[in-house]
Amino acid sequence: MIKQRYRIRFPQVDSKDLGQDEVGFKLIEDNETTELRFHDYDVIYNRPGLYEQLFYDRLKCSSPRKVADILKQSLDAVGEHLTEMRVLDLGAGNGIMGEEIKAHGVSRLVGIDIIPEAKTACFRDRPDVYDDYYIVDFMKLTNEERETIDSWSIDCLTSVAALGFGDIPPKAFFQGLQFVQTGGWVAFNIKETFLDNSDRSGFSKFIRELIFSEYLNIHHLERYRHRLSIEGAPLYYFAVVAQKNAAIPEDFLEKVLKSYEIEE
After folding, report:
1. Fewer beta carbons within 10 Å, N or C terminal of the chain?
2. Nearest to residue 135, comparing CAs of 239, 210, 245, 45?
3. Are 106 and 82 in contact (CB under 8 A)?
4. What average pLDDT does the chain have?
């Protein structure tokens, strides 16, 4: 099958002056130009192959494979195996991270996203990756939704390239963690500044408190090149793999944000 190719142009701006969720590009179709942000996922997913061309071909994103690989390595090091894991992929998008996890073998794999276009794109492009895929808002789960996800007995949570820019707020990520059974695992990536004390955002505070808390045992923390900027400069992230060694109190997030006087 021949992949469709798109005409993409990056604006002549210094992306360092923009938030990473404000950076965009120009899409030229039938001599008409549409300006899109990188986080306009609903529009991007509706065009087969555009997401991959933009982030993987042009900007050389390496995060799904990186996080999947270090998760497998961390599990292998302690004698556990992905083939026995029931994984919840939060912010699953069109299934790229799920595809990497699937390549290592996995017992069960469940996708979660808030954008209906993500599920449609995943079923269009990678129909065999997930055992099930739910469009739900982790900020306001119904009892039925909570029971449905809980019934999968999740013992591993993954989330790649979706944390900290409003796509997955702290409360939603915290809810994802609550679905992971004690003794289970979590693998995710975050922008490198989120571990810097100079970052005053609520998500940064939450992540720093969380990964150094008594509730998670860090097995792998690595700085790596996530992708390129539109100017071709490397953007660095941290990849994190940890084991949940105790139940996290329901008021943990609230106390963290309150201590810094930050709203969720």
Report:
1. N
2. 45
3. yes
4. 91
